[in-house]
Amino acid sequence: MRWFSSAPAAAQASASAASGEDTLFDEAFQRQLESLALAARKLVQGRDRAERRTRRAGHGIELADYRSYSPGDDYRHIDWNAYARTERLLLRLFEQEEDLGVSLLLDCSASMGAGAASGALSKLARGKQLTAALAYVALSGLDRVSIHALGVDELARMPAARGKAQIFTALEFLRRLKPEGPTDLGSAVAKFIARQKRRGLVVLISDLYDPRGVERAISALRYARFELHVIHVLDGAEAEPALRGDVELIDAETGLTRTVTITPALLARYRAAFVAHRTRIEGFCREKHVPLHTVTTGEALDTATLRVLRRGGLLE
Amino acid sequence: MELFGLSLAQLAAVFGGAATLAVLLHLLRAHRRRQQVPFLPLWEGVLAQRDASQLLSRMPRWLALLLTLAILALLALALGDPRLAERSAVVTHRVVLIDAGLASQARLSGEQTRLDAVKRWAERVAGQAGPLLPTMLVSVDAAPAPLGPFSSDASALARLVTDIAATDLATDVERAHRFAIDALAGRKPAEVVFIGSGKTKLSSELAADLKRAGIATKQISVGSKADNVAITTFAARRYPLDRNRSELLLGLHNQGQRAARVELTLLGDGQPIDVRSFELAPGAREQRVYDDLAFAGARLEAHLKALDPDQDVLSTDSRAYAVLPPRKKLRVLCVTSGNRYLEAALLLDEYFKVDVAKPSARLLTQEAFADYDAVVFDRFAPSAAPGIPALYLAPPASSSFEIDGELARPRFEHVQREHPILRHVALADVNIAIAQHVRPRRGVIGGSADGPLLLSGEREGQPFVALTFDVARSDLPLRIAWPLLLINTLDWFANERKELAPAHVVGEVAHVAVDAAARTATIETPGGTKLAAPIVTGSVAFSPERAGFFQLQAEGGAAADRKLIAVGLDAALPPELRGGATTFDVTSLDRPRVPDIWSMLLGVAALLIAFEWLAFHRRWAP
Predict the structure, then answer these.
(1) Which of A243, A260, A270 has its CB closest to that of B42?
(2) Same domain (yes/no): B201, B262
(3) Is B565 helix (H, G, I), strand (E, B) or coil?
(4) A115 to chain B: which residues are within 8 Å by CB?
(5) Residues pairing with A119 in the sheet
(6) What angle do CA B425, B430, B436 make, to 5 degrees?
(7) Same domain, yes or no, for B183 and B134?
(8) B38 vs A235: CB contact, 8 Å cut-off?
């Protein structure tokens, strides 16, 4: 079964890919998504529906927990047997099976497009591919998927959609995104939280270069009770910059410059600072129990996506 | 302070160019490569740490440019080779004449030759060269050969000495000093150092010229007076009547003060053909003739060896070389009705290949003689010339000779003894019964007052000889003159005299005739080296520098023209193996050298470069 072969949307996507400047989502990428979905399906052990359970009281059949009765609760869910034993009114909570809201937050600041060597994939391009892959896997599980672009003044978003056919809408949305503007994850996340009333799974895809720190954004999403996953997109050239001699460094977002003579000793110090930067973010995420996945631009997309899905528990 | 390298104007030009280039590079360097980074604060942290740790890293750019210009100025000044005034007061130009002539091949001890010692001295003298003592090295034999211009580079001069090789040419000291005078013209003070074999006494005229030019002369004498035996003359020839046998003339000289027991070996085509031992008296000059030597080859060599090696320190002049002209068979057609005297005489020389034919009408055309080198007509002759050299015996009236009668009992009353065919021939008492009276036009080389008896001349470019009488009607066949006359005549026809190899000596231009159609020629020296030689007007000219056998091969003619050429030493310029005192101040050769200012300037420049690298290259430029 080929999901992209016969649908009109597939033709639309192909035409768009052929005519647009962005060839990220061409036929090869779409075939890759298809094989990725197949692999993800194997991981969920034959489930036809990737239904996810919430802890809210609902109409499920599996008892999840008890809580004290409050006025206004469904009278039918009071456990009278427990009342006979304890003389307390306890409300039975069932795990309600419902479709999961998946929000994919993609950092589109200028730093995501900077530093890529000629012909190499930029971080934003890798982020787009990851977003598309995750969206496709989620849509295949009948989850509601929304995509939010962070980094632009006006928060761009693809409204929540359901069904595999919506992947083309997602691809078209992603194709239009360009790297621009400074990174302010805290403000962007605050806008997202204000709009997103329904809690669910949030995947933040970013290079985490925020002069104000990424901690504020991560904490805000946690406090808003989102199930947060962070994907740290890295360019290999950032860890090992191929710079020698006299250069003028330009910040991709602010345009600030500094002239410097690159020496091996200076490069060693930079590498140490880079590692410290990553270690600080990893420590923070570990402390807050937020899964952090690192994906590099040179890594194969299917490998990276499956690793993120498997380690992050996004498939179970 | 004076400049001994580039002049001030040249230094200014060099520094101006280099400084302009440096400023341009500095300006280009200011336009640094722009590199976008995603997160500059990461770099800021690193650079802030570096700024705090290194004070020198804040060296401004203009200071770096000044440092660069200072380094360039030092390097440019070093090119000028500045020297303090008191040290630069005297700059002496020196010409070193290095004797590489024949005498330098003389042994000193063991395998060491005088040339080895000369070269060692030359290297030491060249080692003194410097800005205050520009030196020119000249290799000297029969002609001076400068090894390079005046140079202050002692090591480069010493390397030139290594390549000097001895030649077989006698050293012309006078000519070498004349060259030195020319080379030192306009350079004062100046000096000439002659490093040679033994002390050389300059002629008074040359000494006066040197003095007039303000040139001091110094000598380094190598070796002491030594004994030597030499071959001064070596000549060989074939016997006219027996060209299979040869005669040698050898001149020997014992230059020592003691009688020398020597062994003389003659080699023919590389094989010993005669070995003799004898004694040469002190200072003796002897001539020895080796007659009746059974050798028919071409290459003759003589080796003289003193049984006491100390009595012959120069082996080169103990060898001599000669070439005998090659022999070829002469094809002779004898046209006769029968003449036993004639046919028997022609059998005497094995190099005559004789065919006998009866007179016939066939022999009246030139085609009949195409396969022969000479023809003998006995009482017969065609009216037309045969096209080859011809000997006529009693030509008939039908021939081209104008015969108008007979002479009764004529006698040879006059002969041209210098004519080749009359060499060793006595005709005065030959009795002749009757002879034809031939009216000669010219070319009478023997006859009586009544008429010619022996004629020679040319017909259609070919020589001829005619006897006007029938030898059978005379007593000439009974005399030794008869075969001699025949053989001389045929030899003259064969023209072998032109093939006699002339004697060549080293140092003189040898002209060797080659085939007129030849276009290229190659000469192989005794050492095996092959050299291309130009052909000018039918001959090859070259100047041999070594004695021995040279092979000349000319290409382009009908057939390859190969010639063997023997080259001997110049007997007129015998080597003088003298000793003598050295007038050179030998102790001055190893004087310590004061460091030059330019090297100090280079050192300072190197220090500045190191400082610049440490302080500026590794900087963080604001």
Answers:
(1) A270
(2) no
(3) strand
(4) 36-38
(5) none
(6) 105
(7) yes
(8) yes
Task: Determine which of A260, A263, A274, A280 to mutate to test the interface with B (most B C-beta atoms within 10 Å).
Answer: A260
Which residues of chain B are within 8 Å of residue A257 when distances are taken between CB atoms? 34
- In this predicted structure, what is the pLDDT of residue B169? 86
> Do residues B166 and B219 both lie within one domain?
yes
Give the C-alpha separation, B228 to B282, whole Å: 10
| Same-domain pairing of B417 and B546 | no
Q: Write down all domains in chain A, each with its CATH number in brackets.
A: 8-47+100-234+294-312 (3.40.50.410), 53-97 (no CATH)
Work out the mean pLDDT of chain B and round it to a whole number: 82
- DSSP string for A3-26: TTTS-HHHHHHHHHHHHSS--TTS
* B19/B147 same-domain check: no
Among B33, B46, B622, beta carbon nearest to A248: B33
For residue B34, which residues of chain A lie inside 8 Å, CB to CB? 247-248, 250, 257
B21 falls within a domain: yes
Phi, then psi, of B618 in degrees rounded to 5: -95, 25
Whether the pLDDT of residue A104 is over 60: the answer is yes
When mean pLDDT is compared across A84-98, B70-84, B110-124, B595-609, the lowest value belongs to: A84-98
Lowest mean pLDDT among A95-99, B61-65, B296-300, B351-355: A95-99
Whether residue A12 has pLDDT greater than 50? no
Find out whether A178 and A206 touch, Cβ atoms under 8 Å: no
**Contacting residues of B for A250, CB less than 8 Å apart:** 34-37, 40
Residue B557, strand partner residues: none
| Residues B120, B21 share a domain | no
CA-nearest residue to B614 within chain A is A263
B435 pLDDT higher than 90? yes
What is the predicted ipTM? Answer: 0.72
Binary contact (A246, B34; C-beta < 8 A): no
Please judge whether A259 and B621 are an interchain contact, meaning their C-beta atoms are less than 8 angstroms apart: yes
Contact B47 A260 (CB under 8 A): yes
Taking contacts as CB-CB distances below 8 angstroms, the residues of chain A near B61 are none
Q: Which residue in A112, A238, A261 is closest to B620 by CB distance?
A: A261
Tens-digit pLDDT profile for residues B296-328 = 678 889 999 888 888 888 888 888 998 887 777
Q: Give mean pLDDT, residues A82-109.
A: 80
With pLDDT > 90 as the criterion, what percentage of chain B qualifies? Answer: 18
Length of chain B equals 622
The B-side interface with A (CB below 8 A) comprises 29, 32-47, 49-50, 617-622
Rounded to two decimals, what is the model's pTM?
0.47
Listed residues B208, B224, B240: the one ending a domain: B224
**pLDDT at residue B488 above 60?**
yes
| Contact (CB, 8 A) for B41 and A276 | no
- Does residue B217 lie in a domain region? yes
Same domain, B260 and B304: yes
Q: Structural domain of residue B357, as residue ranges?
A: 330-497
CA–CA separation, B535 and B403 (whole Å) = 48
Give CA–CA dist B323/B397, Å, rounded.
46
Q: Structural domain tally of chain B?
A: 5
